[in-house]
Amino acid sequence: MEKAIRVVSIERGRDPRDFALVAFGGAGGLHACALAEALSIPHVIVPALPGALSALGILVSEVVKDYSRTVLLRAASKIPHARLAHEFAALEEQAAKDFHQEAWQGTVHYQSSVDLRYRGQGYELNLPFTKNLVADFEKEHARRYGYAHPDREVELVTLRLRATLPTAHVGTGTAARPSRAKLGPLSTPKALVSFDGKKLATAIYSRNTLKPGKKYSGPAIITEYSATTVIPPGKRFHLDRAGNLIVTIR
User: Fold this and answer.
1) Predicted pLDDT at 54
2) Hey, what domains does the chain have and what are their CATH numbers?
């Protein structure tokens, strides 16, 4: 799991220390803090109802259609913007036709991008279609790989269009405070749990008994219907107003 996170962050020139790690699914919370620690990620977010997050995502996600067209153009001095605009217009026309045939209602939003590479390379970088496309490519190439070749010929390989249509908004609301009937016993049960080979007395919380805004400290295990979250010793955590569990790693 750590290697997979490195592939989508460090190997793409992104510093994990600038991000939070979102853990969902039934077992995401078991590993999240250890992964964040290994990658120096400062915060972990375990969303409300983590076992159902994927289902909620499908419910609120935009309708997305992707289109592409291979062009393989060389940009020795300047980008042929007129031709590219014509090609993107054709892709937008196709997208609008497809949305209409499926009876989707609303305004379609378009994002145009281009796959570019230096001539002779076997891989491309995808960048938004702008007037400064070559300059943006050289800047991104330097950020991603540590170098650029301003005098080397650039090739435009593939034009890409993403067409999106927003769906009805679903409000997430705020975290409801549990009633006293749901709080159960006032004392917090504890169990001996092994952390790095040491058995420590660890608080066991039912997630619905945590009070939004109140600060808690590990070691702790947080249980709920769809997931279990492990908080190592020395880490602090709390619920935000939306019911997300926020763990401070560093």
Assistant:
1) 85
2) 2-57+173-248 (no CATH), 62-165 (3.30.1490)
List CB contacts of 50: < 8 A, sequence separation 6 or more: 23, 24, 25, 26, 28, 29, 224, 226, 227
Taking Cα atoms as reference points, which of 65, 49, 45 lies closest to residue 57?
Answer: 49
Q: Which residues pair with 44 in a beta bridge?
A: 21, 247
Spell out, as residue ranges, where the chain has pLDDT lower than 70: 76-77, 168-187
Q: pLDDT tens digits for 7-19?
A: 888 888 889 999 9
Nearest to 51 by CA among 207, 194, 220: 207
What is residue 178's predicted lDDT score, i.e. its pLDDT?
47
Inter-residue contact 26 to 51 (CB < 8 Å): yes
Is this model's pTM higher than 0.70 or not?
no
Pairing of strands 220-223, 198-206: parallel
Contact (Cβ atoms closer than 8 angstroms) between residue 175 and residue 191: no
CA distance 153 to 122: 14
CA dist 83 and 27 (Å) reads 50
Q: In this predicted structure, what is the pLDDT of residue 78?
A: 77
Contact partners, residue 205, CB within 8 Å, separation at least 6 = 188, 216, 220, 221, 222, 223
